[in-house]
Amino acid sequence: MHVPSIKDEDRRRQTRERERLVAERTAHVNRIKGLLMAQGIRDFLPMRPNAAERLAELRTGDGRPLPPCLVVEIRRV
Fold first, then answer.
1. pTM for the model
2. Distance between CA atoms of 21 and 26, rounded to whole angstroms?
3. DSSP characters for 26-65?
4. Which residues contact 29 (CB under 8 A, 6 or more apart)?
5. Domain boundaries defined on the chain
6. How far is CA 27 from each of CA 4, 61, 64, 67, rounded to the nearest angstrom?
7. Phi/psi at 38 (nearest 5 deg)?
C-alpha cells in the first residue's frame, strides 16, 4: 500500500473539505425541502438569494401561514 507524502495529503485536504461542505449544504437543503413538503409546499428553492424573505410569504397547502416554530427551525438550518 502506498502512503501519500505530506504534500500530497495536504493537497487533497482542500478537496475533501469542499466535498464535506457540499454534502453538508445538500443535507440542509434536503431537510428544508422535506420540512416544507410536509406542509404541502413543493416549489421552494432554499438556495435562491431571496429565500429568507420568501419564507415569510409561504403558505401551507391549505392556505395557512407556516407555523412560527417551523419558520424558526428552517432559519436555524
1. 0.83
2. 9
3. HHHHHHHHHHHHTTT-----TTSTTHHHHHTT-B-TTSPB
4. 46, 47
5. 8-76
6. 31, 24, 27, 22
7. -65, -20
Q: What is the identity of the amino acid at 55?
A: L
Predicted confidence at residue 77, as pLDDT, reads 84
Residues of the chain predicted below pLDDT 50: none
Q: How many residues does the chain have?
A: 77
Question: 18 is written with which cell numbers?
Answer: 469542499
Confirm if 33 and 68 have CB atoms less than 8 A apart.
no
Q: How many CB atoms lie within 10 A of CB 46?
A: 18
Contact by Cβ (8 Å): 41, 30 = no
